[in-house]
Design goal:
Blueprint (H helix, E strand, L loop, with lengths): L10 H23 L6 H8 L3 H7 L3 H24 L5 H13 L6 H11 L2 H28 L9 H14 L5 H7 L1
Helix pairs in contact: 1-2, 1-4, 4-5, 4-7, 5-7, 5-8, 7-8
């Protein structure tokens, strides 16, 4: 049975549960099908809510997608911070970052880049680029800043250059379907 918006006593619990159910359904659908192939109607059906109820919680598909990415971004930031703070010599620390960058996820920035460029507004693209800078780039630059202080970077190599090189190399190995394949194994 489809849930609509509730009012009155106890509606906050129903509202939170409905919103969470919508987010879970949308997350799974975006992860498996990509942004462009998911409709709000399909999300509503998968979540067991009416389309008006879905629009009560989320203005549009972009806002739903952005909220689904928020949990992934939080996890990615924790992963990157842990990798850049890992113990060991320079090679162990850089290896930990590379492994974090190469980890499979259907929401990895490289995997969603083409979809985003084609299907979402400039405002969301700008916000997601900013998030990528905060979540991925900044921790790697901080790692190389520490390594530069320790004398591990060669002269003329800035922390930003080293970070861009490492991120770029790792991303060259990622393909849009890698996260799905890795998750099925």
């Amino acid at each position: 049975m489809m849930d609509d918006i509730s009012s009155g006593a106890g509606s906050r619990d129903i509202t939170a549960t409905t919103r969470e159910r919508i987010l879970r359904a949308a997350y799974e659908m975006f992860a498996s099908q990509g942004f462009g192939r998911v409709s709000m109607r399909a999300v509503a059906t998968a979540a067991g809510v009416t389309k008006p109820a879905l629009y009560y919680y989320f203005k549009d598909k972009e806002s739903l997608f952005e909220e689904c990415l928020a949990d992934f971004n939080d996890e990615m930031e924790r992963t990157m911070r842990a990798a850049t703070a890992s113990a060991g010599d320079v090679f162990a620390r850089v290896r930990a970052v590379a492994e974090a960058l190469l980890a499979g996820s259907p929401f990895h920035p490289v995997r969603i880049h083409d979809e985003l460029a084609e299907h979402v507004s400039g405002g969301l693209r700008r916000r997601l680029r900013g998030t990528f800078q905060t979540v991925v780039v900044a921790p790697v630059v901080e790692l190389f800043t520490d390594l530069q202080r320790d004398g591990a970077l060669r002269d003329g190599m800035t922390p930003a250059m080293a970070a861009a090189a490492l991120i770029g190399i790792c991303m060259a190995f990622l393909r849009p379907g890698d996260g799905e394949r890795k998750n099925k194994e």
